[in-house]
Amino acid sequence: MSVTPVPFGARLAQAISTHGHLCVGIDPHPGLLQAWGLPDDAEGLRRFSSVLLGAAEGRAAAIKPQVALYERHGSRGLAVLEELLEQAREAGVLSVADAKRGDIGSTMAGYAQAWLGEDSPLRADSVTLSPYLGVGALMPALELAEQTGRGVWVLGLTSNPEGQRVQHAGGPDSAAGRVVADVAAWNREHGDVPLGSVGLVVGATTGSAAKDLGIDLGAGRPPLLTPGYGAQGATAADLRRDFAGVWDQVLVPASRSLAHNGPSGVVQCVVEAARDLAA
Ligand SMILES: O=C(O)c1cc(=O)[nH]c(=O)n1[C@@H]1O[C@H](COP(=O)(O)O)[C@@H](O)[C@H]1O
Questions:
Q1: Ligand 1 mean position to 93 CA, how many Å?
Q2: pLDDT of res. 1
Q3: Are the beta carbons of 95 and 63 closer than 8 angstroms?
Q4: Into how many domains does the chain fold?
Q5: pTM for the whole thing?
Q6: 258 sits in which H/E element
Q7: Which positions of the chain have pLDDT values less than 70?
């Protein structure tokens, strides 16, 4: 007998209400590995990942490993990522695989199976997706996520300044606004209580952009992943101001700012960031 999985949105809402809004980003940049005294190889990745996951347990709502920084080590790096995702599952820590995948529908199914399939070695609780080929092209991932109780995060307004030229195009009928509207429609139809399972990436550095473009981030209650806090300059006060009214939807990732004081400083950085975001 098959059991209906608990939707990702419900699991995430529970994690945020228990642990707060922080998501521990795990970005094993070569420079950080070096600063930590670790080799730039699979063993270095393994030790870096283990310290960040350990610090996240019981202190943060989720982890977000950056896939490219594992992928650059080929199959050995991906094997470390598989181990990390498995350890997170065992520890009960939600995972966001930051893979930023997106393809035409027929081959999107392959990416969906890789990150969201029940039997995939790389399965995560959720994965980041790029909607440049159209939100409709992402359907295989949205559908598989729903079947397996997993989630996705669709890039909406990204944290980097270069994104604006494409995402703001169209003004009141902006490209980003269309992505947000498609996500809202999916969540309304497939469940948006307490949160939808299809989230949006909206950078913490984007200021009033959503408001200026007439975008309603509350529509369909998408979880909102807000990179840009910490190393990219956004503060907790910026987040509170720009996400007022939708704060319960927000998951705040931070990567470099949690790792910059070396392995012995990670727990303190995580505790301080979690407290900063709870204030
Ligand atoms: O999807 C993401 O996570 C993401 C989207 C975005 O708009 N901006 C952004 O910085 N990110 C990711 O968020 C993380 C930010 O890292 P820090 O700036 O070190 O906190 C990196 O892994 C980025 O790839």
A1: 19
A2: 57
A3: yes
A4: 1
A5: 0.98
A6: helix 256-259
A7: 1-2
